[in-house]
Amino acid sequence: MSKFSDETELGMGTRGVLAGRPGEWTGTPGHPGAVVNPAVWRASTHLYPDMDALRAHAANQDGKFYYGRRGGPTQWALAEALTQLEPGAAGTVLYPSGVAAIAGVLLTVLRPGDVLLMTDNAYEPSRVMGRGLLRDFGIDTRWFDPTDIASFEAACCERTRAVLLESPGSLTLEVQDVPALAAAAKARGLVTVLDNTWASPLGFAGLAHGADITVMSLTKHVSGHSDCMMGCASAGEDWYRKLRLRAQGMGNVVSPDDASLMLRGLRTMKLRLEAETGSALAIASWLVGRAEVARVLCPMLPGSPGHELWLRDFTGGCGLFSFVLKGGTSEARDALIDALDLFGIGYSWGGFESLATPVDPASIRTASPWPLPGMDAADRFGVRLSIGLEDTADLIADLGRALTLWSVHGDVA
Ligand SMILES: *Cc1c(COP(=O)(O)O)cnc(C)c1O
């Protein structure tokens, strides 16, 4: 990665700058053509000088020219950079989207007849995969309460092969005790897969905390600009090899143009995450003091659910959190979101522009309660905010304007 001998001593910021820029693809400084970023290397056909050379490449070697479906320098540079950011990873596989990464991993780990345990706060398309794609392949999914290890243990059976964690959950933000769950899974011989999209490896070292495979939607923080989709999975040697071969077998390949956009986003990810985290924390603490708000779900905030685990395990956060309104109706919540000026209405998160979407866990969950224990049954309508790079004061003023509507609709004293 660099000329420094001990790379493990480098901080994440430094790694984010140096990683994935092998001299092989960026040139030697001072020589003609030397550049900072690996070029966009477009190719389906890779040419060989003669038949001997073609035959010599028949073995499936990682990071070696063969044919476009096994990638090229731009994709290898991105995969290498992501590997450098994930302590314990031997390699990273790229997929055309985060959902493709989750599917690619689960279809590598699971076989017909297996049972997958899935956290009840998982991203909805992951749940849909359990009920649809996996079911069609003879794999059953059972859900468990994200914050209750006894619920995980109770859901285990003889056919259980793997567990899918997501911490914090990207809608309701429960932090899971990943080390404890991974240890319990390991004791039963299960494979632990962690969707680490919220924190990214900058905020949570998933493999180092016990996961066997970490998955991330690069569409969110790594892109950072809402204009590109991709996913990845990182793992130690054994799972990395299996994931890579399965991804190739399923024909998963990402374009070098997109890989180049992701590399560009990766270079500024740390700064963006820090800025969004600071702004989100300020907005979350402001929301705590509002009469219209029943609960703020933001583990970075002292006093919020999951904060103790977050402090123990995480090194950083991001701009994504939710809050629950006091009373009201779904229609009134829609009107509140419509009244926001600076928040885009649309799916995804992690971009430079702030977004707001409704959160309705009651219609999704099957293994854990909503409203959460200790919450009033009437307080059910949530809003998820993805805080971007606008000025915090402007976002607070916008939210303040929209929240005043709630005194008409909600149970505001
Ligand atoms: C968005 C998201 C995904 C899927 O990523 P895409 O790139 O949109 O397919 C997976 N997990 C979580 C937690 C997400 O928020």
Structural class: alpha/beta
* Main sheet summary: 7 strands, mixed
**Whole-number mean pLDDT:** 94
| Count of DSSP-assigned helices | 16
Which series of helices and strands comes N to C? HHHHEHEHHEHEHEHEEHHEHEHEEEHH
Q: Which CATH top level class of the domain at 270-409 fits?
A: Alpha Beta
Provide the CATH architecture of the domain at 270-409. Alpha-Beta Complex
What is the H level of CATH, i.e. the homologous superfamily of the domain at 270-409? Aspartate Aminotransferase, domain 1
Distance between the termini: 58 Å
Strand order of the largest sheet: 1-7-6-5-4-2-3
Relative strand content: 5-15%
What is the global morphology?
globular
Low-confidence stretches: none
What would you note in describing this structure?
It is a single chain. The strands form 2 sheets. Strands 1-7-6-5-4-2-3 form a 7-stranded mixed beta sheet, sandwiched between helices. The chain is built from 16 helices and 12 strands. The protein has a domain at 270-409: Aspartate Aminotransferase, domain 1 (Alpha-Beta Complex). The chain is an alpha/beta fold and 413 residues long. α10 links the parallel β5 and β6 (213-217). The radius of gyration is 22 Å and the shape is globular. It has helices at residues 12-18, 23-26, 51-56, 73-85, 98-109, 124-131, 133-136, 149-155, 178-187, 200-203, 237-249, 256-288, 307-313, 330-338, 392-403, 406-409, and strands spanning 91-95, 115-119, 140-144, 160-166, 191-195, 213-217, 231-235, 293-297, 320-325, 344-345, 355-359, 382-386. Helix content is 37%, strand content 15%. The structure holds pyridoxal-5'-phosphate. Residues 97-99, 123, 166, 170, 195, 197, 217, 219-220, 229, 231 line the site of pyridoxal-5'-phosphate. The site of pyridoxal-5'-phosphate (PLP) has 13 residues, from α5.
